[in-house]
Write a structure and sequence with these properties.
Layout lengths: L2 E9 L8 E6 L2 H12 L3 E6 L13 E12 L5 E17 L6 E7 L7 H25 L13 H11 L4 H9 L3 H30 L10
Parallel strand pairs: 1-3
Antiparallel strand pairs: 1-6, 2-5, 3-4, 4-5, 5-6
């Protein structure tokens, strides 16, 4: 199990492996963290902390390594950055030194070994459900943009879809901490499948209403 010392950035957000996330850095301690990261390997650990929680991250918490892809420093010292999630980690202990931000001694946190042939049918099912929900939602929003591309790997697919759907922070964190790709695929399917028929029906009505009933497929 790989262990390393990692700067920690606690936020009420969840970063998933393989997923990009824009962040605004404004607190002085995290400006210093950003400068230190840019001067080294451009990595820090993002750890979910609910807004109401004040104790900060601790032993056993699961986070995701954030790789800084772009950093734009503003005139007042704040920065806009874009990170992408790499791999997950578990905090072994919090390390405090002269730096104003937290450091964590972390170890890699990986999925259980589940056979691909067991995952593929569930991944295909979830992919189809997501695309149906996405198309209906785009129709209702009059949004013609294409749906985001999805990874072929079942484990990566679960994280990507989790990042794209409407989930609260604790729900996202539960999926991040799950070590079972199969469990994540099943949970996401259970969240999305019940909405498919209703959304598609609403999308059909919406599309017909926009053409005053005279569009393709309209009945007279």
């Amino acid at each position: 199990m790989t262990e390393r010392l990692l700067p920690l950035f606690p936020l009420p957000l969840v970063l998933f492996p393989g997923v990009p996330l824009p962040l605004h850095i404004f607190e002085p301690r995290y400006r210093e963290m950003l400068a230190d990261c840019l001067a080294t390997d451009r990595r820090f650990g993002l750890v979910f902390i609910p807004d109401e929680e004040s104790n900060g991250p601790g032993r056993g918490d699961i986070g995701c390594v954030a790789l800084i892809q772009t950093a734009e420093e503003l005139a007042d010292g704040r920065s806009n950055i874009i990170v992408v999630g790499e791999h997950r980690f578990a905090i072994g202990r919090i390390v405090r030194d002269e730096r104003p931000y937290l450091l964590g001694e972390v170890a890699s946190y990986t999925d259980l070994d589940e056979p691909v042939e067991a995952l593929t049918p569930f991944a295909d099912q979830l992919r189809g459900v997501f695309e149906r929900v996405g198309r209906a939602a785009r129709t209702l929003a009059d949004d013609r943009d294409p749906l985001p591309s999805l990874p072929s790997d079942p484990a990566a697919l679960s994280f990507t879809i989790a990042s794209l759907i409407d989930l609260d922070g604790p729900g996202r964190q539960r999926l991040l901490a799950s070590r079972s790709p199969l469990g994540r695929l099943r949970e996401l399917d259970a969240l999305l499948s019940p909405a498919v028929d209703t959304l598609e029906s609403r999308a059909v009505i919406h599309a017909r209403a926009k053409t005053n009933g005279h569009g393709p497929g309209a009945s007279h």
